[in-house]
What does this fold into?
Amino acid sequence: MEGHLVTYLVIIIFCVIMSGYFSATETAFNTFNRIRLKNQAEKGDKRSALAIKLAEDYDSLITTILIGNNIVNILSASLGTLLFTELLRSEDLGATISTVVMTVVVLIFGEISPKTMAKNSPERFALFSAPIINGLKIVFTPFNFVFKKWQDLLAKLSKSEEDKGMTEEELISIIEEAEEDGDFDKEESDLIKSAIEFGDLVVEDIFTPRIDVTALPIDADKEEIVKVFSESGYSRLPVYENDLDNTVGILYYKDFYATAYGTDAPISDILKPVMFVAKTQQVNDLMKELQEKQLHMAMVTDEFGSVSGLVTLEDILEEIVGEIWDEHDEIIEEIKEIGEKEYIVSGKANTEKLFDTLELDEEPESVTVSGWAMEALGRIPEVGDTFSEFGISVEVLEMDGRRVESVKVTDERPSEDEEESEGDEGEQSEEEGIIK
It folds into this structure.
């Protein structure tokens, strides 16, 4: 082989290697873990700091990569044509063979292989590549400047009014993908999603309804108070005068036993102030207010000013970390699976949580399952009543006065396998009809 052909071949090999380098660099900087490299940079790792700096100026980085990649690809294609033309002594055949060979070579060694390797170890390759690509970025500064102005012009011409911020749904999707990839376990994923969704909650979503509130009249005798504290297991109880709408304070277990029990002192002297909040107040705002006032509970009022129930700091925390049980609590499983697509559900269960369990993409209008049953039936339910909505069948199992105690929920929607089976049967029936 003549000397200049060897030179062509060496330059082509170098160009393919550089093409692979640019492709791998692009993949590495698109997929590396920024948090991990930021932590390394804060510990004094200069390469990590350089990689983060390059990634933050992404427009210049990608322009440098594209300029370099196009130069080496075009150069390798041109030299490949010259090489094969001289080897085959035919311009047409040489150009055709060169196109086929260089396309396959660049595709395998300049695109697929390096990108796969970089995707498997993005941080390692980004650290290796950072000094080199930073040097090339300086060399290509004039080109980067021109292309930056061109990008700015295009950005102005195609400016969108859409909000580019990440939505809550998109963020939750990222968390779910991370869980599927094994970056989070289910408990960690649920905790993060609960924290993300926390800002959407209002007091009405989490409060204890009035009928379930344990409270004391202001004139209750000491032994009655002892009995209520003992039976309820609560450490704080609302105290009212005449009825719960006129709640006058909160009685603390420790204050009662320390200063009032066994004495003639009235409990009105040791009551803590009571806080009233609206059903529609945001839960995160309520939590800040409770922390500022150093309180643990608040009475919830409706639009008419009547007390609808109460909400505690524990109720708020449970929305993030899940149920918190202590030694006095009777552990109740609000949604219990009893069979395939069958559940026993407490009437007190949150309807939204039930819909999430059923993977039902609907917005419930009632907060509790009991309220959902009343709304669907249009009256106070009775044991044995049934109704169906959204492909879900519900049967009332128990009543507690005028409130639903428990229901049986059956998901009657066909699964994906059943839908596919029905579709196949339908196609088969059509084919049989055509044959007939």
